[in-house]
């Protein structure tokens, strides 16, 4: 079922660009995560990337680092994230959920145990930032047995040989990092993105999503001209964090859900309008 959810989502969208928001599980608090996931779906999310809190991230910018730090301070770990996905699945059996995190968390649990529990919880894909494709060769079997797609990153510095190596192993979709740097960076070269995505598509038959540096509807629409999916995280988290700060007496979970839903709906509407 899990691999089918991702494939069915892209098939259903046709020419429409997939919208993939990223949130850090456990931020602003553990109770908010599942309502946030449902709110993002209501706002037009096609796939949800759920960040697994980790103490020593290497690709996350300040906004996501702070979000995961808040989650860790409240005791949220990988097992809690899997439990959140399981709760989400009680009401939503169709929206794909991709976990994004670091190898240490999975190694601490054990690859086989993680794959089994992730499959049971309803995880559709896994993107391990610091795990190269070659390290998946044994792990991939455990994932596929549970219907979980290994999803990989490509960057502006990825060589043709590297793209080809990733293409042989990737499933679900590929994630192209639009710039050199961490998440949340504000400068994105749209012409370079178009060129690189076109080059990647020569080697792959699965959809290509683009993330890092997409901060508003305008940049999302520009990226969507070349990509099959737009991935957006830091600006979404900033929006929730700012809304909570502005309403200190309100329930932070409720504030986060409303702010995230309203903001993401604007992105969805802009993407759909650009396709008309």
Strand and helix map with partners:
Blueprint: H1 2-13, E1 18-24, H2 33-42, E2 48-51, H3 62-73, H4 78-89, E3 97-101, H5 103-109, H6 111-121, E4 125-128, H7 136-145, E5 149-150, E6 153-154, H8 160-169, E7 174-177, H9 190-201, E8 208-211, H10 217-224, E9 229-232, H11 234-246, H12 252-274
Parallel strand pairs: 1-2, 1-9, 2-3, 3-4, 4-5, 6-7, 7-8, 8-9
Helix pairs in contact: 2-4, 2-12, 4-6, 6-7, 10-12, 11-12
Structure description:
With 276 residues, the chain is α/β, with parallel strands linked by helices. The protein has helices at 2-13, 33-42, 62-73, 78-89, 103-109, 111-121, 136-145, 160-169, 190-201, 217-224, 234-246, 252-274; strands at 18-24, 48-51, 97-101, 125-128, 149-150, 153-154, 174-177, 208-211, 229-232. Strands 5-4-3-2-1-9-8-7-6 form a 9-stranded parallel beta sheet. α2 crosses α4 and α11 packs across α12. Mean pLDDT is 91; it is low at 181-185.
Question: Concise description?
Answer:
Helix content is 51%, strand content 13%. It has 276 residues and is α/β, with parallel strands linked by helices.
Terminal Cα span: 32 Å
Proportion of residues in β-strands: 5-15%
* DSSP, total strands: 9
Order of helices and strands: HEHEHHEHHEHEEHEHEHEHH
What overall form do the CA principal axes indicate? globular
Given as residue ranges, the uncertain stretches (5+ residues, pLDDT < 50) are 181-185
| Secondary-structure content class | alpha/beta
Helical segment tally? 12
């Amino acid at each position: 079922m899990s691999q089918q959810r991702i494939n069915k989502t892209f098939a259903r969208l046709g020419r429409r660009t997939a919208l993939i928001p990223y949130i850090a599980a456990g931020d602003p608090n553990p109770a908010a995560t599942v309502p946030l996931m449902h709110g993002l779906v209501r706002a037009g999310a096609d796939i949800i990337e759920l960040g697994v809190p980790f103490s020593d991230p290497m690709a996350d910018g300040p906004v996501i680092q702070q979000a995961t730090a808040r989650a860790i301070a409240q005791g949220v770990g990988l097992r809690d994230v899997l439990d959140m996905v399981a709760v989400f699945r009680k009401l939503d059996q169709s929206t794909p959920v991709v976990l994004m995190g670091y190898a240490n968390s999975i190694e601490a649990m054990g690859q086989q145990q993680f794959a089994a529990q992730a499959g049971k919880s309803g995880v559709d894909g896994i993107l391990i930032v610091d795990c190269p494709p070659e390290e998946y060769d044994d792990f991939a079997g455990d994932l596929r047995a549970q219907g979980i797609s290994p999803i990989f990153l490509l960057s502006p510095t990825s060589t043709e040989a590297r793209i080809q190596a990733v293409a042989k192993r990737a499933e679900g979709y590929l994630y192209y990092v639009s710039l050199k740097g961490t998440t949340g960076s504000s400068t994105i070269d749209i012409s370079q993105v178009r060129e690189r995505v076109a080059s990647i598509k020569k080697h792959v038959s699965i959809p290509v999503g683009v993330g890092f540096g997409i901060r508003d509807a305008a940049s999302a629409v520009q990226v969507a001209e070349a990509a099959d999916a737009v991935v957006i995280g830091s600006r979404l988290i900033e929006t929730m964090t700012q809304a909570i700060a502005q309403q200190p007496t309100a329930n932070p979970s409720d504030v986060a859900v409303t702010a995230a839903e309203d903001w993401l709906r604007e992105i969805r509407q802009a993407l759909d309008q650009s396709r008309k």
